[in-house]
Design goal:
By secondary structure, this protein is an alpha/beta fold. It has a domain of 80 residues. The strands form 2 sheets. It has a 3-stranded parallel beta sheet with strand order 1-2-3. A two-stranded parallel ribbon has the order 4-5. The radius of gyration is 16 Å and the shape is globular.
Length: 138
């Protein structure tokens, strides 16, 4: 018998993390529990993760450190498969520790892992804080 697998949407992840709607939290919790017990495989796409970061920060006012902690724990959970997990983990770390936007941190981490390693940008403020072959223009 093949194990069921599915992608997670940002709203489900947010309801799980926020616990702000009892019915939705329970549904999300049950889904994550099934994944943790090996009954199903859940996938998180990098764009979904970026949407969760943006919503937690912009709408709910979470700090970068809070976001990195809560999402770092989530993406390390059993039964969850995060596409480009190594990149997401590095991006969350840089997002919190280097005080940069998550998307900028993700792009730089992706360049280091997947290449090409060079990133051209006009954003001196954030990219100057990141590792890699960052080339500022002009």
């Amino acid at each position: 018998m093949n194990k069921e697998s599915a992608w997670l949407d940002a709203n489900l992840i947010l309801r799980f993390l926020r616990k702000d709607h009892p019915q939705f939290f329970k549904a999300a919790y049950d889904l994550f529990a099934r994944a943790e017990h090996g009954e199903l495989e859940l996938y998180i796409h990098p764009l979904t993760l970026a949407e969760v970061v943006w919503t937690l920060q912009g709408y709910y006012g979470y700090t970068k450190q809070e976001i990195a902690a809560v999402l770092g724990g989530l993406i390390g959970s059993d039964g969850l498969n995060v596409v480009d997990k190594v990149i997401a983990e590095k991006a969350l770390k840089d997002f919190a520790e280097r005080n940069v936007d998550y998307i900028d941190a993700y792009l730089a981490a992706n360049a280091m892992v997947n290449g090409p390693e060079t990133v051209y940008t006009l954003d001196k403020k954030h990219f100057s804080r990141l590792e890699g072959d960052i080339r500022l223009l002009p």
